[in-house]
Design goal:
- Helix 8 packs parallel to helix 9 (247-261) and helix 11 packs across helix 12.
- The longest helix has 19 residues, at 14-32.
- A ten-stranded mixed β-sheet has the order 2-1-3-12-11-4-5-10-8-9, sandwiched between helices.
- Strand 6 (150-155) and strand 7 (158-163) form a beta hairpin.
- It contains twelve helices and 14 strands.
- It folds into two domains: 1-111 and 267-362, Isopropylmalate Dehydrogenase; 123-261, Isopropylmalate Dehydrogenase, CATH 3.40.718.
- 46% of the residues are buried.
- With 362 residues, it is α/β, with parallel strands linked by helices.
- The structure holds nicotinamide-adenine-dinucleotide.
- The site of nicotinamide-adenine-dinucleotide has 22 residues, from helix 4.
- Nicotinamide-adenine-dinucleotide binds next to helix 4.
């Protein structure tokens, strides 16, 4: 198979971690007989330095022309970097918002996995963390409260702010379909999270999700209220497979779920549109404090590349092989500095990439 991948190395540790992800993808291609064509584009601070803007039309066209985009991370130190003296629409993050919009990425996927070997980093009680967990939060990214009409008015000398939460059935249906499709590639369970006891938008959400579920009789659907879900994430995270939810609930719950794993350098993410196209990136930022030192953990980016293989190219076996290599390297006690613990061997970013290439087998 030919895989056309546009890469955005970005800023800070971005180029270091993307380099390691490419090494791993090249090994996958070699083992399974694929051909990968990469095209690198500039975005964020790197693009500001060269073009004066965080994202050019040419870069967007290159991203659109690819089958998928693999990104490191963008941005610099927000207090010292000259990029943050620029107006907001010219700062690095504007590039990310711009590309998400240009590519119509409406579904955000954030897996939260607790690896047995890293259970010590989990802030939960051992009786809970020892069971491990492997969930994926599917968040609607372009609708709801963050995109609704808003205004602040003054009535009879009292200031009043109004935000509106709107979803139409098409917006709900397309994210629900994504959620069920992805559950089919996992343990076939969807927990749809809403606030249907209070909100009309949640009642419509629940009704449309029920309709979509009829096309997926092999997938188990349950509904959960968002306040209960926030509790269940710390009480019994092992119960979740795919959590399907709207924009604001997903924003909050996905951060909660990542904190429960305790290891930011391990968390991948993806944003998808209604084709197979996706943008894959680690959940963490550009870590300017450790950039250029070859000590960053490349695993989140490498697991994002595995998601790309699975969701954009339907290469499930290849994705499984990458995830198995990660587990093997952890089991053998190799750690980057951020996940280091006593008795383990500390390795650099590039060494971690080399080890993963070495452990990757068909
Ligand atoms: P950050 O995630 O970059 O770093 C937080 C802490 O985690 C730092 O101590 C960092 O060294 C550490 N860390 C993060 N990733 C690591 C890795 N792979 N290996 C080892 N340690 C790692 O968050 P921040 O410091 O708040 O933000 C830094 C910059 O990144 C800012 O400009 C911010 O806007 C940007 N940012 C970009 C994205 C993105 O590109 N999607 C996301 C979040 C933040």
């Amino acid at each position: 198979m030919e895989l056309n991948i546009t890469c955005i190395p970005g800023d800070g540790i971005g180029p270091e971690i993307v380099r390691e992800a490419k090494k791993v993808l090249d090994k996958v291609a070699q083992l399974y007989g694929h051909e990968i064509k990469y095209k690198d584009i500039l975005m964020g601070g790197a693009s500001i330095d060269v073009h004066g803007v965080p994202l050019t039309e040419e870069a967007v066209a290159d991203a659109k022309a690819a089958d998928a985009v693999l990104m490191g991370s963008i941005g610099g130190d927000t207090t010292t970097s000259p990029w943050y003296q620029l107006p907001p629409n010219l700062r690095p993050e504007a590039g990310l918002l711009g590309i998400r919009k240009a590519l119509n990425l409406f579904a955000n996927l954030r897996p939260a996995v607790l690896y047995e070997e890293l259970a010590g980093a989990c802030p939960l009680k051992e009786e809970i963390s020892s069971r491990g967990f492997d969930m994926l939060i599917m968040r609607e990214l372009t609708g709801g409260l963050y995109f609704g009409e808003r205004k602040t008015v003054e009535e009879n000398g009292v200031r009043k702010a109004i935000d509106t939460l709107t979803y139409d059935e098409n917006e709900i249906r397309r994210i629900a379909v994504k959620g069920f499709d992805i559950a089919r590639k996992r343990r076939k369970k969807v927990t749809s999270v809403d606030k249907a006891n209070v909100l009309d938008s949640s009642r419509l959400w629940r009704a449309v999700v029920e309709e979509v579920a009829k096309d997926y009789p092999d997938v188990t659907l349950e509904h959960m209220l968002v306040d209960n879900c926030a509790m269940q994430l710390v009480k019994d995270p092992a119960q979740f497979d795919v959590i399907l939810t709207e924009n604001m609930f997903g924003d909050i719950l996905s951060d909660e779920a990542s904190m429960v794993t305790g290891s930011i350098g391990m968390l991948s993410s993806a944003s998808l549109n209604d084709t197979k196209f996706g943008l894959y990136e680690p959940s963490h930022g550009s870590a300017p404090d450790i950039a250029g030192k070859n000590i960053a953990n490349p695993i989140a980016t490498i697991l994002s590349a595995a998601m790309m293989l699975r969701y954009s190219f339907d290469l499930d076996k290849e994705a499984d092989a990458v995830e198995a290599a990660v587990k093997k390297v952890l089991k053998e006690g190799y750690r980057t500095v951020d996940i280091m613990s006593e008795g383990c061997e500390k390795v650099s970013c590039s060494k971690m990439g080399d080890l993963l290439v070495e452990k990757l087998h068909k």
